[in-house]
Amino acid sequence: MAQSSRKLPQRKSAIWQRWLAFGVLVAGVVLAAGCGQQSPTAPSSGDASLALDKGDTRIATSDMDATALLSVTVPDFDRWLCEGTDEYHWVIVIPGQEVQFFWREIGGVPLGPQTTFRYGWNIQDFADDNDPGWVCRRGAGARYQQTKVMAFWDGLHDLTIERWDGDQLLVRATFGVWVAPMLAREAPAVRN
Questions:
Q1: Does the CA dihedral 82-108-139-137 come out positive or negative?
Q2: What is the DSSP string of 43-83?
Q3: Distance CA 113, CA 141 (A)
Q4: Average pLDDT of the chain, as a whole number
């Protein structure tokens, strides 16, 4: 009877060691930063109740009408509920990986004629409507509630999404898309 060895050949072992090192690097960053992702919780004011269904972000509310939320989704990554104007979340990708963001309003008492959105990449001055990072002016409709499919090869790229009701800013959330560096591939050792 032949015995099988569970030891990986030297060539495959080196490949797995590089992937393991990369995995440890990413896990360390995610744990250290908390990945910036908060579990959806009920707002602290009032006796509002919040229920999040995994298949689709849905809110069950009693007194939550006064709380404006923004539901942001990145398919195959995660989903966030954003409240207030100082939220920051991390999205970690590998070089060249495509991402697209989608968002919609949840709750809130309308303060103006309609809810509008705007978004941009690497905004320098949020108060400046002419900042070159803004992709669009405020508007309503599907065009204002999603980004184009983007792929980044290195660095950190901040996406800022704003929800407005009339002339009042209700929600501003920023998502740092960080491209995790890949380890350089080593040349295989030559055996004589």
A1: negative
A2: -SSTT------SSS-----SSGGG--EEEEEETTTEEEEE-
A3: 14
A4: 73
Mind listing the domains of the chain with CATH numbers?
68-179 (2.60.40)
In this structure, the number of other CB atoms found within 10 A of the CB of residue 147 comes to 18
Nearest by Cα to 89 from 162, 169, 158: 158
CB-CB contact of 165 with 112 (8 Å): yes
Contact 171, 69 (CB under 8 A): yes
Q: How far apart are CA 192 and CA 189, in angstroms?
A: 10
145, 94 contact by CB (below 8 A): no
Is-contact 84 175, C-beta < 8 A?
no
Query: Cα–Cα distance between 35 and 26 in angstroms, integer?
Result: 10
pTM (predicted TM-score): 0.63
Q: How many CB atoms lie within 10 A of CB 24?
A: 10
pLDDT digit string (tens) for 131-159?
999 999 999 999 999 999 999 999 999 99
Q: Could you read off the pLDDT of 60-94 as tens digits, one per residue?
A: 333 344 577 899 999 988 999 999 899 999 999 99
Nearest to 55 by CA among 35, 43, 36, 73: 73
User: Rounded to the nearest 5°, which phi and psi values hold at 174?
Assistant: -115, 135
